[in-house]
Write a structure and sequence with these properties.
The chain has a 4-stranded mixed beta sheet with strand order 1-5-6-4, sandwiched between helices. The chain has a two-stranded antiparallel sheet with strand order 2-3. Helix 2 packs antiparallel against helix 3, helix 4 crosses helix 5 and helix 10 runs antiparallel to helix 16. The protein is mainly alpha-helical. The N and C termini lie far apart (66 Å). It contains 28 helices and 6 strands. Helix content is 58%, strand content 3%.
Amino acid sequence: MKRSSRVLSALLCAVFLFSMLCGAQAQEAPRFEYWPEEVDFRDLTCDLSAADELFAQCVQAEQLAASPESAQAVVDCWLALEDAYDDWDTQCAICGVRYYQDSKAHEADYLASRSLSLQVYRSCLLAVQALLASDYGSELAQAMGQDLADSYRSAAVPTDLQIALSEEDNELVADYWEALYGDYTYSYQRESWTLTRLEDEADGLDAAAYLAIYSGLAQAKNQAAGATLLEMIPLRNQMAAACGYDTFPEYAYTETYGRDYTVADAQALHRLVKDYIVPVETAYLSYRYYDLDQTGLDRYAHADQEAKLDAVEPCMDQVSGELGELFRYMRKSHLCDIEASDTKLDVGFTVNLPSYHSAFLFDQPQGTYYDLKTVIHEFGHFSAFCLAPSDDFPVDVAEIHSQGLEMLFLPYAGELFGADGGTFACAQLSDLISAVVEGCLYDEFQIYLYSHPDLTLSEINQAFLELAQEYGYSPYPGLEYQWVDVSHTFESPLYYLSYATSALSALDLFLRSQEDYDAAVDTYLDLIAGSDGSGYRATVQAAGLSDVFQEESVAALAGALNEYLYTALYGLRDLAGHWALPEIGPLVSAGIMEGSGGAFQPDAPMSRAMLVTTLYRLVGEPKPTVKQPVFPDVPVWTWYSDAVAWAYESGLAEGTGGGFDPNGPLTRESMAVLLCRFSALLELDASGGSLSGFPDADSVSPWAADAVGWAVKAGVIRGADGRLNPSGGTSRAEAAAMLYRFLTLEG
């Protein structure tokens, strides 16, 4: 059965969906009406003569429209045009696959197919509009559906100028790929370096030399590829103006990606991601790279295509029997190419083959865990192209198809990576959170570029560097040049935000899977079955997922991800739902505070030894020079002896009653004193403040009054129920909250 018709794409005849690079099996009922046709991709060739045949059909359609024989003849003519356009789409897809497999051998056909795309679209659109304007137009509108008929009638016919601009843009994209893979050299200490040499000899270089050479090579590539973008920006702004848009981002959001949200909505999301998601990403990256051994993720580094597919297939069956069957169809039909090749371009994507209700999965493997991740990701796209009722879903929805499947694979990480399954699962989660951050970073960057068309390349690089730091990136040599490695900036501008919106939805799906895995799988499969061409926000709402443009939704996702990190990954399960988790979490990630035996014990008393050890970690644990033991109750063999010696040597701890009392409970005023002294040690403000606003101010010990005043003024102590309670004990959670406030003081 033919799937619901779609308005022909105004820009690309082949829709490429690019990658960014154990629970119980779900109980499922048959839900998919469509299934791909039998085909063997090895037998398919790119035949651009299909365009000539389609042009001829368009002429015949216009002739029929001028003198129609019957309503049925008009409807049949339209259906034939739809089939012919699907065939053209498929030919372009095949041509695109061949190009990415060997760009030099197939560049001419690829550019020709892209050049013909708008011409084909224009001819088909004019033909269908003529049929709708014929004597039997109302019957045709009824047959195709009134909404689709209205879309055809209102669609703007591409002008000669628009077609010429599109062809020029295609040529610049080809120039970018050539620049990206150019052979660049950099002279360092009178020696010539290439990227290949740098990779081969990296172990023999110190960090400074490596970074200098790397940055020099990155700059050379940036200059070549960046020059192409400088030509693209005014050209694309002209393309937008030719279509009646004030800015290219507005044009791309609406015409290219069919988004049901605006540029202003996206800019609000950028701010939310900086506020809520960037700190979460930092915490996950800290756990991933400081607490986990990454070497086990190389399990498939040298695996060939069949070995990778063999690993994924049984897990796909466990997620869903229908997806497992479709995976076997893909393999049998040779509809994937994930084998390494020297001639392939460095991308991963899935492309629609509408003539067969099928698709093709492509990847150039990197020799890392990412190769397996890409298979899972891209198969989500493959599934939607084969099973969804329409292939006209927005890219934001398409990326939920891919990223959502990645999240549903996490329970089977152990089957894929054995003892390193937990590391793989963390990497997957971390990558998806990073996709949110990177998606917003590159979207904001590209909106800025098209809003400031007169920027020099140097100014563009500086803008990216500054913006990257707003999104939590630490600057390093060459960072400002690396945006050219993201091909979407050149080939699919303004696409990258779709990775962010969809990743937020996929993370929502993941968190729901922690409560009910079967229900989450059903939600995912229903989302594919319901991908009928509706907008992203409408589709997500229909699936019962959160609206990621609402602050409360993003804040809730961030909070839940934080809780999962510290309770499930760090294993500190007694932090679940704890009021101080937002303050405790960053201290745990930074290694400032720790748990023990799978617990943090947030409500246990904070001892004096615990606090000085925490402060000792903050200054890098310098070896104390004072002779130990400093206090008779702090033997040199205790875990806190160096910290206490440092505190004594630094003037933080003076002892009490002839000793240090390391296990003694820490009062609120004692903690204020230690933090105030620590602030002075760091040469920060340690001046006191007024306590007149607190009814129990007189109960503060005289020796602690100035320090408590400082703590109140700085916001380190806030007072519970309007009282200071200076002699009250301090729990580990309360101490963490006070310490976090201290560490986040401005200045």
